[in-house]
Amino acid sequence: MKKFLGLAAAAAAAALALTACSSGTDAGTSTSPTAASSADNAGKSITLWLAGGDTPDELRTYLKTAFKAKTGADLVIEEQSWGDLLTKLTTALPDAENTPDVVELGNTQAPTFTNVGAFSDVSDLYQELGGDKLLPSFVEAGSVDGKQYALPYYFGSRYMFVRKDVWSEAGVAAPTTLDEFNAAVAKVATDNPRDIKNFSGFFIGGQDWRNGISWIFANGGDLAKKVDGQWQSTLSDPNSLKGLAQLQAIYKTASNAPADAKDQSPWLYINDADVITDANGAVTGKTKLAAATIMAPGWAHWSIGDLKTVDGKPVREWNDKKFGVMVLPGNDGKPAPVFAGGSNIGISATSKNQELSRELLKIIFSPEYQQLLGKSGLGPANLDYVSALGDDEFAKALIASASNSKLTPAAPGWAAVESQQLMEEFFGKIKDSTDLAALAAEYDAKITPILNQQ
Amino acid sequence: MLPTAERPAAAAAPDAVREPDAEDLRDAARHKARRRKERRVAWTLVLPTLVILVLALGYPVGWQLVTSFRKYGLKQQFGQPPEWVGLENYKTLITDPSLWAVVVRSIVFCIVVAFATVLIGGLLALLMQRVPRGPRIVLQVSLLLAWAMPVVAAMTIWIWIVDWRRGLLNWFLVNVGFTDAEGHNWLAQPLSFFIVAGVIVVWMSVPFVALSIYAGLTQVSGEVLEAAQLDGASGWQRLRYVILPLIAPVLSIVLLLQLIWDLRVFTQIKMLQDAGGVANETNLLGTFIYQLGTGKGDFGMSSAVSVVMLLLTIALSWYYVRSLMKEEAS
Amino acid sequence: MNARRIGNAGWSVVAVVIALVWAFPVYWMLNSSLLPNAVLNESTPRLLPFGGSLDNFKVVLDDPGFIKALGVSLAVTLITVVAAIAIAFLGALAVSRFRFRGRLGFVLALLLIQMLPAEGLFIAQYKMMSSVGLLNNILGLSVLYAAAVIPFTLWMLRGFVAGVPAELEEAAMVDGLSRTKAFLKITFPLLAPGLVASAVYAFLQAWNEFTVALVVMTEEQSRTLPLWLRGFVQASATREIDWGAVMAASALVAVPVIVFFMIVQGRMSSGLVGGAVKG
Fold it and tell me: What's the pTM?
């Protein structure tokens, strides 16, 4: 009895809170249906799977509180690590008894799961949740035949981090077109103003295709296209080849990164030579500056800077005199299209809590939550709220680079291409290739059949 | 042929002539009863094993077998009825040259690594027996520490060690004079990739082998060895004619298991691939199955590879299985 | 005599050197667990944890998930070890001390099970556990683990039982002991090293297993230690991987294994073996 009263009280409080919120926006509509349903929902709960630690704790708390207030039900958030997400989605999503109700998944994984029918159709909610304002490339990744299933959750983007001091020592001005950029990083590398062994003007790993595809995109090429309902890999199209040739030139003249390096922690190479001393002040080691430019996701700036000791702990502190950010320029005056990272979010088709799950989506796509995403440095799904990212140089670079960003193909088999690491393999072979066209054609032949399999 | 076959019968003849008396009959009955009781006890002892294996593995193994004859992809996992395709998956596999490359690679890797592991493990076990208690415990604890290290941590450390830029290995080589080693990339070439992988797998598996063989050695009684020594047997002779035969059962099971485990090595290869290797040039059977199943969502095919792999393991261990059957039958 | 003693000293040195080489990655883990991330990312390795601190351990121990995961892992592992050793031991006895029809088939089946590739089984394992309602269940996971280690432990123990000559038992039976007693007094103590090795093996398998646990323990509160550890090894949009914390967490995960080994080793080998062989 006591428990019941407690729940009723909570429900009443939630209803009050809701009335208070909604009275401002749509005072005309009655709140009683929601209030009734929130009493029904007391004691119920739904589960949200978030991928990785990208969503900060404050946002998780906000979601739980807002969900409780709106529906009376509990929201359980469980974090899945990116590396295991595929396994867990494959086993749990089809299982009606144990499926999570709402899941976040990588934008490149979204087409695969959307195509096999893992998510509920949310087309009827689409307009209410933001419609055209939602990042179009992500919406497309989660749609089949014009119906929306998985919607964008947040996006990130890649831009350049440069060593201003090294660039100016090499006498190279900031480039404004892609051609200028390509020439500039080559010059910085050959000038090598500080005479560093194995120095890179622009450090880009051989297998780092997520950054490398920018050159394909920037020259009007693409990874794949849909012809008569069938996906075709288009690495050997003339425009793609043009970009790949530029990339090969960079690999040969500007970058000294190994052929098998991926996109992990490139920021290590543009940090300065710091002398490390032991407790007695004796020099025990040195870090090495090895690159004048890197391309990385925006959050890399936390790892770039001078080595300082804060609260007794060595940390990196950004130094405006040495470091700068820059968006990869295109040849048309706009930023070059870069690969956009990020996530989609969808309701499990087997979930028994479809209504509550839809309520959760409404909270996630509410202006409040979208702004919270922006304030945490994550690109909000609804482009109306990108201003929430702030106006420092990092936010500006993120917004500018994202404005023209692209995604990997929304083909059902794209996740399989990635999991077989075919792109890593292909890009790793570019530097030493004597016949790029043949190499590209070889991988087109490998990738096309995989793109269409379900 | 005939004479040898007849001889026992002839030898038995005098017995057969004698009339069985009451005592013989009672003996036979008692014998029979004891046999029956023995059998009942034996099956009772085996029963718990059977129950738990059937409970835990019956369904998954059956599912895998059935699935290998079906078209079963992510769509089927999400509710569409799977289609029976008979041997289609196997046909696709056997005609796929990349499977055979993986098979050959896996077999070579598995044999080299398994023998190296057992050899090193065996030598360490002998060493443990040879040295006094203090050093022995140091060695045992160190092996155990290596064994107990969580795989994620162990692999991370090893990847750091061979890292091209800040790896200890290159740093060490440069400091002893091989300046070419600066920035050398050990994971880029398949050959050096597999050498690195082999070293790591040996490092991880030796503790188990060494401790098991050492446990086997402690069963060899000191008196036997002393007697052999008094008879003038050299160290090598003692090892060859006294110790080896006595620990043969443990040695052979350990080798067999290493072969089986190294054939399906997965985590180490996967993590090294993620760190830099080219996946399709460094796949072994374990990562190949994973790529087909979890990666590509083609569970029919990945089940078929699993079955092929099972057959392959049986073929590889056939010699062992046959000698086992002979030994058991005798 | 003198030459022999020098030989002993020489071998002791070899043993200690090998021990140091083998444990080096472990040392490197501990070293890294004491250093902050910024230092770990430098291009020159730091061989000693100068300037280090226990901060990483504090981060890890403050994580509320640790104690929970430790509890789950301990429960699963202990159930697995006890069940696997007991069941496999009985089976090993049957196989090596009794002759019965079906024995060869049984032994071969065990071998075959060892050979099953595990990478393809997880979907079916999930389906099975879900349909009987044993997802997120400690006992359910233990059953899967026990089944995974029993074939091996049984084979291993079979080797050890076979290593004890049956004549020893028979001699004792001639001296008037019953078969069971003869076994307990004579054979069992000689098996102690084998039991220890098998138990340590089973313990480590259950303790470090990842994939099956990942699939079957779907809820956060039923995570085992390897799943919890995995949580540290990922970068996110706002932070990079904290390698120092990963190493500290790994070191903590390894501690119970060492403790278990010490207990088992001390109890069994010195106590039982020593007493039986000498007495």
Answer: 0.82
